[in-house]
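Handoff note, outgoing to incoming analyst
You'll be picking up this chain. Sequence as last confirmed:
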Amino acid sequence: MPPQHDEIVPVDIVSEMRSSYLDYAMSVIVSRALPDVRDGLKPVHRRILFAMHQMGLTYGSKFRKSAAVVGEVLGNYHPHGDSSVYDAMIKMAQDFYMRYPLVWGQGNLGSVDGDSAAAMRYTEAKMSRIADELLRDIEKETVDYTANYDNTKKEPVVFPSTVPNLLLNGTMGIAVGMATKIPPHNLREVMDATVYLAENSEASNEDLMKFVKGPDFPTGGLVFGEKDLRHVYGTGRGGVVTRGDAEIVENKAGAFQIVISSIPYQVNKSEFLMRIADHVKEKRLEGIKDVRDESTSDIRVVIDLKQGVNPQNVLNFLYKHTDLELTFNYNMVALVEGVPRVLSLKTILEEFLKHRQIVVKRRAQYDLRKAEERAHILEGLKIALDHIDEIIKTIKASPDTEAAHAALMKKFKLSQIQATAILEMKLQKLAGLERKKIEDELKEKLLLIDDLRDLLSKPKRILQIVIAESKEISEKYGDDRKSKIVRHGATQISAEDLVEAKESILVLTSGGYVKRTDPAEYRAQRRGGVGVVDLNTKEEDFITIFLTANTHNDLLFFTDKGKAYQIKMWELPEGKRATRGKSIVNYLSLQSDERVTSVLDFPKELKNSNKSLLMVTKQGVVKKVAADSLADVRRSGIIAIKLDAGDELFAARFVDKTDDGLLATAQGQSIRFKESDVREMGRAAMGVTGMKLGKNDSVVGADIVKKDVRAHFLVMSQNGFGKKTPVGQYKAQKRAGSGIKTAKVTPKTGPIIVGKVVTEAESELVAISKNAQVIRTALDEIPSLGRQTQGVRIMKLHAGDSIASLTCL
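Most recent structure output, in case you need it:
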């Protein structure tokens, strides 16, 4: 009958939605996504194993079709989709997914490449050897049971589990508003920690970590960071860096290879290889010639590298941009008495030990009850054997079984159970040996009863049994680690790590275009050659700075406005000899009317030294600051020197305490003064006079003379003439003088363009003209001449061209 109107109860939709969603959320949390801390299983896994146990599919049995198992689970315990049950069962059989598989499967069970398993009608399964340990003594009422979904059968709430499976195989699950992610661990380590905690209840997480070194993934690999591991095992949350095993090897042909022998946990190997191929195809990763998957039962991926490629840089790229390095984020959430909790390592083992003590106690209670029941029967049988003639007489005198039963109970003071056992006793028990067996069994049962009663009265004995069984499990199933633990944290792969550390040439034009180039791009020529074209510049542009530095070094850029900027050498665009490069404003925050006048190589070792920095302006002003004051310059730049109106910062050089400064002007004058003549100042100071200049003269060369180092002062004029002069011919004088002659300036030579101190460490000169002609020649070919000479022709210039800059290699 349809309901009457007065039976309709109005319900607020907000309240109903809230209530229904909370019911759903709790169902997902408790009955689907989160494992129980005691056996480490979610309901679906527990039901699969219990169904297999009920079917007799233990470790020692024959295999059965997976479809039969799935049908048993669906029909009796887990009314959900068959694919969800089969997928869960397959995962329990995959040795690359579970550290200790709980199912032993036959057939195609999937692969680490992401291949799916064959259909359930083709594969077969039974419980693994260690899965039997999860259900050991389940028949002895060691755990509680609950009704299945249709109340036709009973299923266990939890397994007795002799192993802390939550840690051994780990778990992953997403519930409503929470998730869990626990990695697998090594059985021997976990059992040793369990025993230690059982014997030392006050042990800390750090004490337990002397045994549990870290996760032990079935796919092996490396796990980094003792500090990170201490944090996650103490709090239950945190990240740990994992890497696959990769080795750089050299083959017989002398070429380098990267051989990968393991990958991080749950990484799809096929997708990992496709990711590498994509990087190579998109030219994000260069230097790889071939990638081969040579895996069989073990993982082996071989990456062939091209000649001349730095293999460590390629490996660093793989760590940074592929799944060869991953962070495993712990979130150790499990159900404790039905309530989700974030657990530490110690808490997980404590809950497991509590569970095991309850199981051992309930097992003892069951065994005691069974022993008492059997002893009771044996006592009745003994009474019967002691009075066998009277027993037989009484039975014969009884009209039926019921009367005989009652007569026995009354005459011999027997219980119903004893009377029944006597009536059911076979005549063969009357034999002498059979009688002795009953007496011996009764003695044995009475001793067992006393022992079990003593056990139940002493919790310490129960704990000792838990310890003994844990040691037995460790001996029986313990194995060596697959993952290696690296105490220190993983080196963070920065963009710099992906760049090979090598010498490179920086080229900067007056128009503000910059690039870095391999020195091998310039072939050596003899003095007087025409040179080769370096840079595809615009007609009005020419090269002003040419510098060699390691790609990993910092560069300090000084501008005519007296500001300093800092970037890494590798951050500059790489180009060939004939390419123009990119505008420097892409890398430095320069003003529209600001240009770079000097660039210094600033390696790490200089930042922590006692060196100073000497700056020189076009008008001969010098200033000295501590080098470490420029160790961390922001990209927007800082003020390095305060300038007079019309003056420009010309050069900056690093100096030691015993160095001398050497300046040269366009009109051929020079001055050498001691570094100590210039006191160290703050960055905002203006500096002091270094050299008095003549009318229309300006500083064009500024360098440092090292004490007791054999060196020459190399000058080059506008029209390609140059020479070397021993620095000994430049006597040190007080700063602020007008100096002495360094070269004869004539219309033929043109004014001096550049002056530089060269030592025996420098073997070649590279000169560049305004029209981008380049010559590279040995410094030995440039003659050593006196200060008053004009020099020899170093480079033939085309009409209208002139020298712009030079550098030495």
